[in-house]
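Retro notes (design track)

What went well: tokenization of the new backbones is finally stable.
What didn't: we kept losing track of which sequence belonged to which structure.
Fix going forward: every design gets posted as structure first, then sequence, in one message. First example under the new rule, 340 residues:
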């Protein structure tokens, strides 16, 4: 037969106090004589009482829990971000609950509404789906939200992004430095801020180095491996195909490599490639991928810090925080030696 669950009234009875007094002690809302405190603690230890921490926190106006909303936890980039956010939240005595949306608008809105029910005190929110205005409307009026990695246009909350423009410049300059002049850009949806900014850096590097910007070398689509392969086929079919490609994500670069292999070609001999992210597999594939490292860890840490500043409301918070990026040189770039 299962033992009876110990409740607050059992502790109060053993300590010889009212239930309200014990409850206020556990909520840190009353100062008691040391002898009284000892009676309560002795009763708790003797009975093995475990308080319902969520209920206690809710009664005090908060859950001491942060929600982390991510589109895809199978992506190593988001997994690293989540690990850093949880560690930082824990250091500040907050729990972190992971909310995976798979870029489903209904799920995104569901997690935002957790703020209304106080299931979480605040949200770290990431999406890589272009917003049609619904997500912005849902976020409107919520103060304890920090956007990570990707923007939701029109949303007036703190935002933590990587320095996408500088990353796009560095990637393109590396290819230019290897002698390439016809350099293509393959990105995700054109509506996404990260894609537009990385393209901006790409275009800026071309023009600053006296090269012609050719829109026919630009391809927008899904942030998917399949689109990377499709884009490679389109670019190779051009009358004057590129000799190098800057992919706006490492995942797109995998698709480009798939497309090359399907045609019996390889990188960097047939095509030099640069990615963006420095995903965990970038150093494991053949060729090892040259890429732009954006620190998922720093994104997670900074986002938690911004949210805690929102809670405190005792200092000015930057509207946008930019995380520096870093050039990682590996094996996927070769000097340009002529036509394909």
């Amino acid at each position: 037969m299962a033992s009876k669950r110990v409740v607050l009234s059992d502790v109060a009875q053993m300590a010889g106090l009212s239930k309200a007094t014990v409850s206020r002690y556990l909520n840190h809302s009353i100062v008691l004589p040391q002898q009284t405190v000892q009676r309560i603690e002795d009763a708790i230890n003797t009975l093995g009482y475990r308080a319902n921490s969520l209920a206690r926190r809710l009664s005090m106006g908060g859950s001491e829990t942060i929600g982390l909303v991510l589109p895809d936890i199978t992506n190593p980039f988001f997994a690293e971000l989540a690990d850093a956010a949880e560690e930082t939240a824990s250091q500040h005595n907050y729990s972190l609950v992971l909310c995976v949306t798979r870029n489903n608008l209904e799920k995104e809105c569901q997690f935002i509404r957790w703020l209304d029910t106080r299931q979480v005190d605040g949200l770290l929110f990431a999406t890589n789906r272009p917003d049609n205005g619904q997500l912005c409307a849902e976020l409107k009026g919520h103060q304890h939200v920090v956007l990570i990695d990707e923007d939701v246009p029109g949303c007036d909350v703190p935002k933590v992004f990587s320095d996408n423009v500088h990353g796009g410049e560095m990637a393109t300059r590396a290819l230019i430095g290897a002698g390439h002049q016809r350099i293509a850009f393959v990105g995700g949806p054109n509506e996404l801020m990260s894609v537009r900014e990385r393209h901006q850096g790409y275009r800026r590097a071309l023009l600053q180095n006296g090269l012609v910007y050719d829109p026919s070398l630009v391809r927008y689509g899904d942030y998917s491996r399949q689109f990377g392969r499709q884009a490679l086929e389109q670019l190779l079919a051009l009358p004057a195909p590129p000799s190098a490609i800057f992919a706006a994500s490492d995942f797109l670069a995998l698709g480009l490599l798939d497309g090359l292999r399907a045609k019996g070609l390889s990188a960097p001999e047939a095509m030099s490639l640069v990615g963006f992210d420095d995903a965990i597999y970038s150093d494991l594939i053949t060729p090892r991928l040259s890429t732009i490292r954006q620190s998922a860890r720093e994104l997670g840490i900074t986002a938690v810090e911004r949210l805690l500043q929102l809670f405190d409301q005792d200092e000015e918070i930057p509207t946008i925080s930019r995380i520096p990026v870093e050039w990682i040189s590996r094996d996927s770039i070769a000097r340009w030696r002529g036509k394909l």
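Added context from the reviewer: Residues 296-312 form the longest helix (17 residues).
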